[in-house]
Specification:
The complex is a heterodimer of chains A (111) and B (417). With 111 residues, chain A is an alpha+beta fold. In chain A, 23% of the residues lie in helices and 33% in strands. Chain A has one domain (3-14, 21-108): Alpha-Beta Plaits (2-Layer Sandwich), CATH 3.30.70. The longest helix of chain B has 28 residues, at 58-85.
């Protein structure tokens, strides 16, 4: 089955109240439910991405990576029969529900 | 493999435990840094435990992370301070030596100490309640606002004020003195009582939300009752009344969430285990020479729990208890309650006689309770016109649709023609 790279992005600066312990526990439950539902699809849970630099022929810059307004937060690798199915997995991921966040899904082409 | 399920309220209760444990170690004046460290530890747990799996001992994991967060932050502050003031030593030096483990008994002691710190007579009682909800129960600001029926801005204001007062406490208040514990005990009981009634009497629609507050109040009251400082007949009476009320909670609503009158409730739904525990606490509370309002209120709750039916309730005993509460803590609401009980014990006119010539204070006159009781008693006495007047007022003043519905049912005046 083809594999897909999911890149999670969010809009920085959204100053919201920090999640309360109850909300965090809900997030924990929702995330685990999602993991259970798509257990077959998840190849690598990936992780969070820290800050970085963009290296170009002219040297290194602080960014922008994709678009200045966005922050790349994390990545993971999933497998799915089609891009549509991969998108479905990503769409239901609890990390995407937050306002202003998005996931980019790209097929990983192997020769 | 399915991810392990965390026990209900795990994060919220951990929040309270961790803040209390850390405050005991570094001093409560660092409460903001402590809360931040705990918040970050819970966030770290959320990330780490969803990516892999929770550790074998989640509490110990959280404590270690929160402890390290806090020490890191306080060390940074100290070195900043040193650079600024060239101050030689700070209280933080002792921190590094703290073992990174805690003993089970320490959790109880810390929670209790934090409870007494929150109930500082220097804070208004509203702030004490908000502090307890935030620090000990681990509720977020918007969750507290929802439960206390007030705005988030108001909660922020109360919290901010209380926190800045905590900050100004002498460094390392460490242990409160025995005298301070004794002096603050009534305030602690009052906050636990308020926490419970916020849940029990709240017009909040969701039973689960109300239940949560009641359970937390009981949880903390048990911590109090297990400590020598809190082992007083009043504390036991407080626990008795909490359990005896909680026993009837589920029966107070019908299947669609509507409120039910005491006489409409299915007594088979009352939780017999809770009643049993309540009666045990009540028996324990019957010593010493102080008859507190908690004793009287627990006595009333016990009468209701033990009555086989509404009609067979020992209303004379209920009236007696209300009269005692009136003496201990004079309030117009107790008089109103006594009038209701007298009406059941004798006749509606006798209930009205209790209120005869009584001018209710504005807060009561403007509440649906006053109008509803008068409407009901006048209706039963056949004073239809007066009953209609108060009925209108009661409906207009009812705070929630559920209460309005209940009043409409109760105050239906059938002989209007």
């Amino acid at each position: 089955m083809p594999k897909y790279l999911c890149i999670q992005r969010s809009q920085p600066g959204g100053k919201r109240e920090k999640p309360s312990p109850t909300q965090m526990q809900e997030m924990y439950a929702v995330f685990n439910a999602w993991k259970d539902k798509f257990r077959e699809n998840i190849v690598d849970m990936g992780g969070k991405l820290g800050g970085g630099k963009v290296v170009t022929s002219e040297g290194a810059t602080d960014g922008p990576f994709v678009e200045a307004k966005e922050v790349v937060g994390g990545f993971m690798i999933i497998s799915a029969a089609s891009l549509e199915e991969a998108m479905q997995v990503a769409r239901e991921c609890p990390g995407v529900v937050m306002p202003g966040s998005s996931v980019e899904v790209r097929e990983i082409r192997t020769p | 493999m399915t991810a392990p399920h965390l026990v209900e309220h795990f994060f919220r209760h951990e929040y309270g435990r961790l803040v209390a444990l850390l405050a005991r170690r570094v001093g409560v004046q660092h409460v903001e840094a402590i809360e931040d460290a705990v918040q970050s530890a819970l966030m770290a747990a959320l990330e780490s435990w969803t990516l892999s799996a929770p550790p074998d001992n989640p509490s110990a994991w959280l404590f270690r992370v929160a402890h390290n967060n806090l020490i890191g932050e306080l060390r940074q502050r100290t070195s900043r301070l040193r650079i600024l003031k060239k101050a030689a030593k700070e209280d933080i030096d002792t921190l590094g030596n703290s073992p990174e483990l805690f003993l089970a008994g320490e959790v109880h002691d810390s929670l209790l100490q934090m409870l007494f710190v929150c109930c500082d007579e220097a804070f208004p009682v509203e702030s004490q309640l908000v502090l307890a909800l935030k620090i000990l129960c681990g509720f977020g600001v918007s969750e507290i606002a929802l439960r206390l029926f007030t705005s988030e801005a108001n909660i922020y204001k109360r919290l901010g004020r209380a926190r800045s007062q905590l900050r100004e406490l002498p460094p390392r208040i460490g242990e409160l003195t025995r005298e301070q514990y004794t002096a603050r005990l009534p305030a602690v009981s009052k906050v636990l009582y308020l926490l419970f009634t916020e849940g029990y009497l709240s017009s909040h629609a969701e039973l689960a939300i109300r239940r949560e507050l009641c359970d937390d109040a009981i949880r903390l009251a048990v911590v109090l009752a297990e400590h020598p400082v809190g082992q007083t007949p009043e504390t036991f009476a407080l626990l008795a009344l909490m359990h005896l009320h909680a026993a009837r909670m589920t029966a107070r609503v019908d299947r669609s969430g509507g409120l039910l009158l005491l006489e409409e409730q299915d007594r088979k739904l009352w939780d017999q285990d809770q009643i049993q525990i309540g009666l045990e606490w009540l028996a324990k509370s019957a010593r010493g020479d102080v008859f507190s309002r908690y004793h009287a209120e627990a006595g009333i709750a016990a009468e209701h729990c033990l009555a086989p039916s509404f009609q067979e309730t020992r209303w004379d005993k209920v009236v007696e208890c209300y009269a005692m509460i009136e003496q201990i803590a004079p309030s117009a609401i107790h008089k109103l309650n006594r009038a209701v009980a007298v009406a059941e014990w004798q006749e509606p006119a006798a209930g009205l006689a209790v209120l005869e010539g009584f001018e209710p204070p504005t807060w009561l006159a403007n509440s649906y309770l006053w109008a509803a009781v008068l409407a009901d008693l006048h209706r039963r006495c056949g004073n239809i016109e007066i009953a209609k007047y108060y009925r209108g007022a009661a409906l207009r003043l009812s705070p929630t649709p559920a209460i309005k519905q209940l009043l409409q049912r109760r105050l239906r005046i059938c002989c209007l023609g």
